[in-house]
Structure formats: structure tokens, C-alpha cells
Amino acid sequence: VDDAPVVTRAIADRALQLLDVDPVGLDVMDRKYLSLIVGSFGGGPVGIETIAAALSEPRDAIEDIIEPYLIQKGFVQRTPRGRVLTPHAFRHMGLPVHIGLPEAGQRVAEPA
């Protein structure tokens, strides 16, 4: 990067910044995936086909490229009902942690 003979931490940090990779290693697509699940589905569960359609990405690309790192880092869990964000994901996004979210498609009771 910048014709430097040695790659220092500062140079590596600058390269990651240029690639829009955050301090924990999430890139634009990772953040888009997390934002979709929290913003449109309240944190999940949500099925992979729904995620693929909403992101306009092939299912295989999501399962093979995006999800492995998010699962490894503890941001997403695969469940029989669909993908669910973990409390770690909510904290990373600067959002309050939602425990016991309603199931997808289930209405949340309005305050009286």
C-alpha cells in the first residue's frame, strides 16, 4: 500500500479502512446482512431464502461467503426456524439487546 517497503499496522489499518472493513473484520455486505435482519425482521428468525431475496444475492453466496464469518464471530446463529442475531450483534450495531424477540410474522402487542 502506498509503495511502502514494509507493511506496518498503520498501513494495514489504512488498507482495511479503504476497503470499508470495521475493527472486528465486518465488511459492507456483513453489515448489510445484519442491518437487514435487525431492521426488517427484528433480529430474526428469518429464512435464508428471504434473506437472499432481500439482499439480491444468491443463497449460496450468503451461506458460503457472508455467514461463515458472522457465525464464527458469534453475530448470527442458524436455527431450525431461521437465522437469528445474537446479543453480540446487537451490541456491535449499537442497539439495545433484544432477548425473546417475537417470531417473524407475529404481531407485537401495542401498548394500551
UniProtKB/TrEMBL annotation:
Gene Ontology MF: a single term: DNA binding
SUPFAM superfamilies in UniProt: Winged helix' DNA-binding domain (SSF46785)
Residue ranges of every copy of the RuvB winged helix C-terminal domain listed in the record: 25-93
Gene3D superfamilies in alphabetical order: Winged helix-like DNA-binding domain superfamily/Winged helix DNA-binding domain (1.10.10.10)
Biological process, per Gene Ontology: DNA recombination; DNA repair
Superkingdom: Bacteria
Protein name, as recorded: RuvB winged helix C-terminal domain-containing protein
Organism: Methylobacterium soli
